[in-house]
Input
Amino acid sequence: MEIIELKAKAAQIRMDLLRMIHGAKAGHTGGSLSNADILTALYYRVMNLDPARPKWEGRDRFIASKGHAVESLWCILADRGFFPKEELETFSQFGTRLIGHPNNKVPGIEMNTGALGHGLAISVGMALASKRDGRGYRVFCLMGDGEQAEGSVWEAAMAGAHYKLDNLVGIIDRNGLQISGSTEEVMGLDPLDEKWAAFGWNVISIDGNDMEQLVDTLEAAPTVPGKPTLIIANTVKAKGISFAENVPHWHHHVPSDEELAQALAELSAVLAGYQQEGQVR
Amino acid sequence: MGNKIANRQVICDTLLELAQSDRDIMVLASDSRGSAAMGPFAQACPEQFVEVGIAEQNIVGISAGLAHSGKKPFVTSPACFLSMRSIEQIKVDVAYSATNVKLIGISGGISYGALGMSHHSVQDLAVTRAIPGLAVILPADRHETKRMTEALVNYEGGVYVRIGRNPVEDVYESADYDFVIGKAVTMRDGSDITLIAAGETVRVALDAEVKLKEAGVSCRVINMHTIKPLDEEAIIKAARETGRIITVEEHSVHGGLGAAVAEVVVQHHPVPLRLVGIPDEPAIAGKTKEVFEYYGISAENIKNLALDMLGQ
Ligand SMILES: Cc1ncc(C[n+]2csc(CCOP(=O)(O)OP(=O)(O)O)c2C)c(N)n1
Output
């Protein structure tokens, strides 16, 4: 997909996930909106995938370590045809498999996550297997910035560098917020780039809501032989809804009818703009 | 009925009240002050509040250090992570070193509903009760939660408490009753069968008792709020006097309340016993009521089970 199409797709995914959360009256809205651009870049352009063969051995792997923000992922997997779109209506309902965290009973999900601080270690294991088997697939792991407070993240960081996993790409959704407020108030992280560099990773900082930068960086990664790459994706929590951006309680706020209508209006205007731009080209 | 106050709210209110005159009381949170309803405490007593970020192992270690230095730390963190992720810190830093740490597991059982198995806490009783010296408590309603919180402040030693997320129906008329750690409460007396429950399932057992009474069955209901140290005397007495027992728990049937009761019954006074709880599988997604119904943690199912045991 071209950049302009990816931008339009991300706007559509945001609308889909808002409708889904509103319908289910449950969900992690803020973190799902902040990572929607990252996931769109990965799933529609960067990753080597085949929705018809979700377990194809050569596929690139994606692990949502910040599993609570699964809503964008459910919408993307449905849109890419891993399962029927109508199933999104069952999100969080009794007996569903589309629960509030990744669930590998659903095609397209590799591993069950939801307890923070597990994803990177799993990804290290996958990247190591890819190397040992000479398969060459890449592993992408998306973490939260609040999640960085878990010690297990750093245990895995050490192992990733130790085994020279240059097929491993860690991405931190650096939206600056967690549940109780700003990350720097709750448990300071900065200088986050220097910490990861000191652990032996190749660190790149980008605007994680800018599709050009995302595609360029993710496609090129890993860029340093013998080192895993860590992308600090600076994002805005609840990105795309003017009145929700950077507001902490939107972490798991479910939009009211009015809020949903207003958000959809904003996003459809953005979407229409991209569609027009796409046609002009 | 109609209670709108969640147990987590009661713990915050009670600690806030006691912390004004007891400066050693401290509350710790792991990006969980909202879920623990501890926001007001953090605001009112910033000097007695510590935020550790999303780091459940660290929160227990830090608390053990605080306790070793004379503080009375109350750790408030989701039950699933607090009980399982930090279990080694609980075993070594709290229990083995005998530090005075109170671990409050919030949103326990299946109260996180559709968030799935990572967020359900239905193995916590199995692991915590296997640790020597650690007390394990499940308060049943807001009144019991208040009395328990007061008792915890004066109790020397490690304790794991598990509470749910939403307000629960009252089982006591007021907080004006005798709450003793390790001493079960007989909520209804009866002679044909005994229901033993803890935490939110006490309400379910009481509702089953009403249905059984209508069916002409005299049913005893025991609120086993302390899983450890277990009130063995109450269990043996119930086995001897009623001859049949059903346990009801919001926990895996492996290693929880039912297993604890079974250990006592089989060794001291074997009688027929049935365990109602979550089977050995990732619990189905849904709201508490839906999940309870699905697994038979309901007054109707318990009534039928009791009638079956009575041969009726
Ligand atoms: C081990 C663990 N502890 C606590 C939680 C509860 N929790 C869910 S989301 C969240 C905040 C996450 O913040 P961050 O990593 O910054 O993610 P984002 O802001 O992108 O949503 C917390 C504490 C959890 N899921 N796992």
Summary: DSSP finds ten helices and five strands in chain A.
